[in-house]
Structures are given as C-alpha cells and as structure tokens.
Request: fold
Amino acid sequence: MHPSAIVRVAVEAGLDGVVICDHNAADNVAAAGRAARAAGCVAVPGMEVTTEEEVHLVALLPDEAAAGVLHARVAAALPGRNAPAAFGEQVIANEDGEVLGFNASLLAGATSWTVGRAADEIHRAGGLVVAAHVDRERFGLVGQLGFVPTDLALDAIEVSAATAYDAGRRRYADPLGLPAITGSDAHGPGAIGRALTYLHLDHAETAEVHRAIRAEGGRAVLGGGRPMEDLALHVLDIARNSAEAGATRIEIRVEEDATADVLRITVTDNGRGMDAEAAGRATDPFFTTRRTRVVGLGLPLLRQAAEAAGGGLSVTSQPGTGTRVEAFFGLSHVDRAPLGDVETTVLVLLASHPDVDLDWTHRRGAHEYSLATADLRAALDGASLASPAGLALLRSAVRHGEQSLAETAGRRSRTETQP
Amino acid sequence: MTVTELARLVDGSIVGPADAGPREVRGGYASDLLSDVMAHAQDGDVWVTMQRHVNTVAVAQLKNLAAIVIVNGRQPEADMAARAAEHGVPVVTTPLPAFDAAGRLYAAGLRGRGAS
Reply:
C-alpha cells in the first residue's frame, strides 16, 4: 500500500492515527509520516519483525530515526533476497505515490533473531515490543512457541480483529498484566479501521501513543474493538452523541434475557433532544450531521443491525428534554452482532466527557450490576473520572460487575447439566 | 527416485497432479518453518512437513521443489490442494510421522544438503 493511500483511507475512516508496520522493514515510515502530518493525523513508525521461530513482534518506534536504526539492524539479520515473481515487488514510495526504489531483502522471510533477541533489539532502538496477534495460531507468540517465555520483556499484547477484544484481553493480556491493543493488521486499504484501539492522550502524537501504552502521565489504553460489528462501540457512539448534544446525564441499560430470547439496549439522555422530524430522520442513513464514518455507525446502521437480528430500534425525543434510543435484538439470533467490550464503552465515554453523570446497568437473566458515576466521584475526592485514579476505579467497577455476571451464568449452566 | 517410488516408500498416496508420478526427486529437506525452507531447501528436494496450508505451494514453487510430503496422516487444506493442482506441484500424504518418513527416504538413498 502506498503511504499516502494509507493515510487518506485512515482519515476517511475517522481514525486519529495508524501504526505503520511493514514486515521486516521500515523504509516507508518517513513518507507515511509526512503524508500523515499533511493530513492532520499520526503515522506511528513501526515494524513487524519475524523472529527465527516465525513469531511476529510489532515494534512501535519513537521516531523515524529509530525506525531507520532498527531497519538497518533487521536488514543485516535477514537472509535471502526477494523473488518478485513469488512475493511481488517490495516498493519504497514517497508520499506522492512515486516509486523511489525496491527493497531487495526477502521481507517474507525470517530474521536470524530469536524472540528474546528481537525484543532486546527493539528496546535498544527505543521501541515498544508488542506480541502480535497472539490469538492467531500462525505467527503468534503462543501459537508458535506454545507458551509465553517468562523472561520476555513485552510492552503490550495484540489481539487480532478475528477475536473479540475483551475475550482476547482477558485470556492473553490480563494474566501478564499488560495492556491489550487491537487493530486491522491491514494488508490492503479496505481493511483499515476494521478494528481499532482507543487511547487516552493529551494530543495525537507518536510520543503520546508510547506514553499511553506505558501508562505514563495519565495517558492510557482505554479499550478497543471492531467498530462495524461490536454493539458496545455503537452504544459508545450514541452516548458520545448525547454528550455532544449537551447531555449532563446519560443512562445506559444492557439487558440480556435468555428466557424471552431478547437483548435490549437503551440509551437515555437529557440533552437538547430533537423534534419529531429530526427524530424520524435520525435513522435515515442519508441524514447525518457528522462528517466521519467509523467509530460506531450511528443510528441508521444500529437499526439495520437490530433488524438483521430479528429486532428493531426506536428513537423518542423531546426538544429541550432529551432523547431515548431503544434497540432490541434476538439474543440467540444467528445474525446478532457480538456485544463487544462494554468496559471500552464506559471508559471512552467518561475519558472524553468526565463530567457527565452516567448510570450504567448490565443485566443478564436474574442478575445485574450497576454503576453510577455520581457515587464513584465521592470516592475520588475531587479527582476527575478521566484521571488515572478515576479510570482505574471505572475499570475495576466494570470488570468486577462483568465477572459477577459471568460467574452466575457459569453456575446456572452447571446446574442445568445435572440430572 | 521418482515421486511414485517416494510415495510407496512412505506408505503414502499421491494427492496430485496427475502427471506427478514420473517426476524426479533429487534430495530432501525436513522443516515446518516456511522461512527456514525458503532459506535452505534446494532445487529438486522433496519437502517433508506437517504444514498443509496454501503458502507451502508458493514456497515449493519458489524453490522449485520436487514434491511436498505431508506427514501424520494429515490432508492438505482445500486451497492448498487446489493451488498445487493448478501449478503442478506434487503433493504426497503419508500416515508416518516426519522422522520416520524422512528416515525411510534416507535409507533408500535420498540425501539432504548435509550429505558430504
């Protein structure tokens, strides 16, 4: 993909930034950086290094100079020359799409570095080490080695777009105490934005991305998922719209009723509301006051997702009073989209709008948990919900609640299998 | 040896293509890492592996390998079989594990790059 094309598609998809990780090379990151700066977004310099064991490690580098250093060291450790007939031409392009040359190394091959050595080399170049797509069997750390070496200095775990972000995070990242990121791993422009990571930054810049992964200075990894699929990210989009419409109080209820086979999601706010005509048009895909596409699809596509799962969506609104969006789905319907990571919903909403009062309830059958930011603020002694202490409190409240729902579901299913 | 003889030696079956039988095998290489095969296998080698996905065929074409032997009774994935047929790369399946399959071929006189 040409650097400028990547940036253009990323901006159209509503992304604030991308990480450029070519296989075993970084000779296109400078051009991507220039294209990104011209377009007002961030292209973090990176590389996907293939170790001797055929494990992929993604390096997130601090700047283009570091990328150049790592590129040279990888080139020296990469045996073989490219065969364009088999692997295509390995183009080096500038931001105007002009071909400057070709990389002659066998980028599809493996370096002579073991996993440990590769991690050291990346750190020595000032980069962060991410175990790439660990949920995938091939080229993933766990798939290739069968285990995670205990002395391997990782900075983050990547969950691929093929796995639900929360499931991947719980399984691979939480046990290691590492942040989980996700992304498209796009090898073509159409895939850009199919999965993304939410970061809490002061401003969009490579150094800030590094700080977020290191959890430094209040920056943080908030969550992630697949904006075209995960209902949690549709809910986030609607709730953020509410906040932008001036809502000071938002109530979100997620209710799973296995007996009635219904999933119901309700978002109620006290924002400026809409008149009847606007409310009717809010679910019309050709009516939008928004300029960007991704990060949840807004109401029209949520309605489409609901109807595809045998459900529907209604919007009721009163100008000056507020709006209520109610979506219901066949819980077990084969086309029902996954719920996704609700922790991302809560954290990103409050990191972006820390003064909003959120009442959150997640119900599964006879069990539910709630959280109310009004109560949480009391425990924070004046600190913002977007501060490290605030985010930690929110995270732990949601995790604790989700775990309690998972445990009760587990108990119920064990009871059901007894004679 | 020919691909037909090779298949017989490992109690195996030729999956395809139809004209694979008489093709000559000049040596052998055993590995499950594609990057390793790309770096070390030689023209005319039979490749003994448990991998059964489509990328193996691309590697076999790249290195002009004589055949791919898939071990442990594993069957090629549909797209691997299709690509192998399309590009005329012989694929043999064997119930034997890799060690035994390679051992049988070595005992019959086939050598790898380590041979002096």
